[in-house]
Design brief:
Length: about 210
């Protein structure tokens, strides 16, 4: 049996973690093996790369450096975690995957989309998600939701609403091109959103 590769995308505060938690709980209850992966961490090497990416002291980091660090972490995660788990038949859930790179580094930071596309394919050895959920929400609403949450701003979050708008628009462009991406309004209640997530996942699981 081959596993299922599911990724969650959307701007910061769009509800990815909330939905991932609901899906995990459901899979656990039904005894379906799954793992959760947080990009760009998830491996010992990936966690070190993540620390560099989020460190406010690294304000001099060039956009290309940032892109290559994400891709480096991704290559490691694919080989060390995702491929072996899919081989075993596990449902692999990723909190962000390469669509984040297209939206953040491509559409928002302005790096060439064609270069990003090539790097994404190369770093993943052409492994694509089976389903991708994109939670769509205005940057203002996402900001309001996030402010109700504890925790210091990291380097990426500090860049503000204008940046998030570009990310959102980038995601929407991408969703038009990629059939695997299911765009879901994040304005609905978590339960209602989860109903759609469950429906799509269970359909592919063949249950
Ligand atoms: N459908 C929803 N309606 C209203 N509030 C929501 C909804 N889903 C999540 N929230 C709340 O919005 C906040 C952000 O949600 P969450 O942490 O799941 O987003 P996220 O996409 O994982 O964010 P990040 O990218 O920063 O990790 C949380 O306080 C959460 O409880
Ligand atoms: Mg989250």
């Amino acid at each position: 049996m081959k596993g299922l590769f599911v990724t969650f995308e959307g701007i910061d505060g769009s509800g990815k973690s909330t939905q991932i938690e609901m899906l995990s709980e459901d899979l656990r209850k039904e005894g379906i093996p799954y793992i959760l992966i947080r990009e760009p961490g998830a491996t010992a090497i990936g966690e070190k790369i993540r620390t560099i990416l989020l460190d406010k002291a690294n304000s001099k980091m060039h956009a290309r450096t940032e892109l290559l660090l994400y891709e480096a972490a991704r290559a490691q995660i694919v080989e060390e975690k995702i491929k072996p788990e899919l081989e075993k038949g596990t449902v692999v859930i990723c909190d962000r995957f390469y669509d984040s790179t297209v939206a953040y580094q491509g559409y928002a930071r302005g790096l060439e989309l064609s270069a990003i596309d090539s790097l994404n394919r190369w770093s993943t050895d052409e492994l694509a998600p089976d389903i991708t959920f994109l939670f769509d929400l205005s940057e203002e609403e996402a900001y309001r939701r996030r402010n109700g949450r504890e925790g210091a701003e990291d380097r990426l979050e500090a860049e503000g609403l204008a940046f998030m708008k570009k990310v959102r628009d980038g995601y929407l462009e991408l969703a038009k091109k990629e059939k695997r991406i299911q765009c879901i309004s994040a304005l609905d209640a978590p339960k209602e959103i989860y109903r759609k997530v469950r429906l799509a996942v269970w359909e592919v699981l063949g249950r």
